[in-house]
Amino acid sequence: MFCSTVYKSILTCCLISLCLTVGCRTADSPSSESTESKTVRSEVNQGPVTLLVEVEPSELRLSDEPKLTVTIRSQPGVTVTKPPFGESVGEFLIRDFFEPLPTAEGNLEVTQQIYTLEPTRAGKLTIAPVVVRFTDGRTDGDGKEHLIESEALQIEVSTVVGDEAPSLTDLRPSAGPIELPSEGPPVWVWLTLASVLTLLSGVVWYRRRPAARPQPPQLTPRQLAEQELQSLIGRRLAETNVKEFYVEVTAVVRRYIERSTGVRAPEQTTEEFLREILGKTIYADKEQRRLQQFLESADLVKFAGVRPAQTDIDSSIERAREFTQLETEQKEETSA
Prior knowledge:
By secondary structure, the chain is of the alpha+beta class. Among the domains are: about 40-160, Immunoglobulin-like, CATH 2.60.40.10; about 220-330, no CATH class. It is built from ten helices and twelve strands. It has helices at about 1-30, 30-35, 185-210, 220-235, 235-240, 240-260, 270-280, 285-305, 310-325, 325-335, and strands at about 40-45, 50-55, 60, 65-75, 80, 90-100, 105, 110-120, 125, 130-135, 145-150, 155-160. Helix 1 packs parallel to helix 3, helix 4 (about 220-235) packs antiparallel against helix 9 and helix 6 (about 240-260) packs parallel to helix 9. The longest helix has 27 residues, at about 1-30. The model is unreliable at about 20-35 and about 330-335 (pLDDT under 50).
């Protein structure tokens, strides 16, 4: 009779603990803001331009892929030159790059560059200062070129195991023999306790599970190139800095080739890049010659100080657009 009363008391305590635990988790459930990843950032303002550099998360593992976002806000009449592709990423590898079309916040124009990175080692890795050039062409501006520079960002990268890996030195010495009780509770008591614990674990997991975030659709290399060309044309950079315009338009073509073929075009000189393209015969002979003429003509403007006519600028834009559509046209000809 006494044992039966004890077992019933144990079962009642377990049920009360279950109710209290569920109630406490409901009351103390953390908000969505507390579960979000921390962000390390640097925001600098200089006259009509604000530069914001963010890395999320600030603490990550070697297997993570953090996002680096460069946001530039500028007032009307200000011409902004965005940072070159891949500058300042330091010991990170670039896994993806996305440049949305410019947007507006009130009277400010907002442009962004979004990188998906991968750390190369554990420890403290540095995102170097990001430098943006702009020309103040406002009515009351000085019309000169200025620089705005963010602070360097420190990112802590840990291994998969982390610093909390168990050590053999933490093991306790073996304990002495323990005397087992002569009698134990019946099987139904253990089954009941196991059921209660399983239910508690399920409730806790359900409360703590992260909310699924919708993933934005991935753009094709051709769509990314078309977005970049439209953004470049909309900035009217050829009217203010034709040399920088040719740097940007050839960078669009090089990034397209890297995304569609795997050739690391942005990291090579024109001579190295053409040698690899001609050696691998990725494109037809006619298209290879057109690409070679396009890049060499652009180099004359970028490095030899040649001043192109407006018809040459229009022709360069059209050639860049045709080449970034080359992959689709070749597929259609093959299927025909």
